[in-house]
């Protein structure tokens, strides 16, 4: 991670207002720098990457599964109860790098959520690199040539998932009524 570093996240957990103000300033600078980098790289990015960037906000999404088969890594995430499950299939050019201690133990959670990610254009065979910071403390770095994004509508849901989905749809309908 170049912009939204684990260190910046940890500093943002401080109780000191002056530290939090500094982290907010640095976070704003990171957002601007990353947005600029992404704008420059965007014309070169594979279609799956631009689809992911345009269609899905994965910040806070629950990571349901991550697996590897030969030169492919598949990550399955649930962005929210009213959003389709998303499967990301990366065609790797090298083995994934996983730092299982990117966050100190104090800041790790049992539930694995997608906190931040950064995409950059590498050129050559490794067209892209995506660094993903997960709430369990892992930073996953994938160098890949292509990404396939598949949104999966649910066919079978557990009872609790059905209730969450129904509640999310009720809230969404309420928001639509209020907005009209």
Give structural notes.
Strands 1, 2, 3, 4, 5, 6 and 7 form a seven-stranded antiparallel beta sheet that branches. This protein has four helices and seven strands. It is globular. The chain is of the alpha+beta class.
Order of helices and strands: HHHEEEEEEEH
Gyration radius, in Å: 18 Å
Bin the strand percentage.
25-35%
Which structural category do the helix and sheet elements fall into?
A: alpha+beta
Report on the biggest sheet: 7 strands, antiparallel
Shape estimate:
globular
Overall mean pLDDT score? 89
Low-confidence stretches: none
Total helix count?
A: 4
Query: How many DSSP-defined strands?
Result: 7
Determine the fraction of residues in helical runs and give it as a percent range: 25-40%
Amino- and carboxy-terminal Cα gap: 41 Å
Question: Would you kindly provide a brief summary of this structure?
Answer:
Helix content is 34%, strand content 31%.
């Amino acid at each position: 991670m170049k912009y939204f570093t684990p260190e910046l996240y940890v500093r943002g957990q401080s109780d000191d207002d002056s530290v939090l103000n500094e982290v907010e300033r640095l976070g704003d600078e990171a957002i601007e720098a990353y947005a600029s980098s992404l704008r420059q790289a965007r014309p070169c990015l594979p279609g799956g990457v631009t689809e992911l960037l345009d269609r899905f906000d994965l910040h806070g999404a629950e990571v349901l599964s991550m697996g590897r088969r030969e030169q492919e890594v598949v990550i399955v995430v649930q962005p929210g109860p009213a959003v389709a499950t998303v499967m990301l299939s990366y065609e790797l050019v090298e083995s994934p790098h996983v730092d299982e201690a990117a966050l100190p133990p104090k800041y790790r959670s049992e539930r694995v959520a997608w906190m931040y990610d950064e995409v950059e254009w590498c050129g050559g065979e490794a067209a892209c690199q995506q660094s993903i910071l997960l709430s369990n403390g892992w930073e996953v770095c994938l160098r890949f040539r292509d990404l396939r994004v598949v949104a999966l509508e649910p066919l079978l849901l557990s009872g609790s998932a059905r209730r969450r989905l129904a509640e999310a749809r009720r809230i969404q309908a309420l928001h639509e009524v209020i907005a009209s």
